[in-house]
């Protein structure tokens, strides 16, 4: 590829970036299967972990899924002992969601395992390359704050199973 073709460079870099973000997919799939947690349920657990006491509507909006789909998945997680649903003392119509200790442990283990795996890969880089990657990833994160809304064609498919 020639350096004077920025659109080709952008496309190739986008493909490489996408591939690199999938490095942990096999591990994620194995962990989800071992835990018996679906991807939509894992997304809910991480969202509740980031926002303790989140209500169902805010959860659904944040995940770009319908309140009905969110409610179905929350019901399954409550049945499995991974989420607690409690009434909001200020508004009894509002239900707050919290992780149970079992869910905290599962989500924490998942995070630790992925971090250790990625850390082992990154440890193979030179200090110079690691610093440059760190700088570039920080820049990407800044450029994507806040992330844009999903197009309706994509968010419409984000139904929980």
Essential attributes:
single chain; 161 residues; Arc Repressor Mutant, subunit A; three-stranded antiparallel sheet; 8 helices
In short:
The chain is 64% helix and 11% strand. With 161 residues, it is mostly helical.
Write the layout of secondary structure elements.
Elements: H1 6-21, H2 25-35, H3 39-50, E1 54-55, H4 56-63, H5 67-79, E2 83-88, E3 91-99, H6 101-122, H7 127-143, H8 152-155
Antiparallel strand pairs: 1-3, 2-3
Helix pairs in contact: 4-5
What class, by secondary structure content? mainly alpha
**Uncertain residue segments:** 154-161
Question: Oligomer, anyone?
Answer: single chain
The H-and-E topology, N to C, reads as HHHEHHEEHHH
Query: What is the fold-level CATH name, i.e. the topology?
Result: Arc Repressor Mutant, subunit A
What do these coordinates show?
By secondary structure, the chain is mainly α. It has a single domain, classed as Orthogonal Bundle (Arc Repressor Mutant, subunit A). Helices cover 64% and strands 11% of the residues. The chain contains eight helices and three strands; from the N terminus they run αααβααββααα. Strands 1-3-2 form a three-stranded antiparallel beta sheet. A hairpin with a 2-residue loop joins strand 2 and strand 3. Helix 4 packs across helix 5. The longest helix is centred in the last third of the chain and has 22 residues. The termini are far apart.
